[in-house]
Amino acid sequence: MVEKENVAVEEKSLGPSRRSLG
Q1: What is the CA radius of gyration of the chain?
Q2: Rounded to 5 degrees, what are φ and ψ at 15?
Q3: Basic and acidic residues bias: where (predicted)?
Q4: What is the pLDDT along the chain (22 residues), one digit of tens a residue?
């Protein structure tokens, strides 16, 4: 469950920028 939380934090930190590239 830690991985899922880390992903959420990264998404909030980096923003949609990473999601767009993903």
Answers
A1: 8
A2: 90, -165
A3: 1-13
A4: 577 887 777 777 766 665 655 5
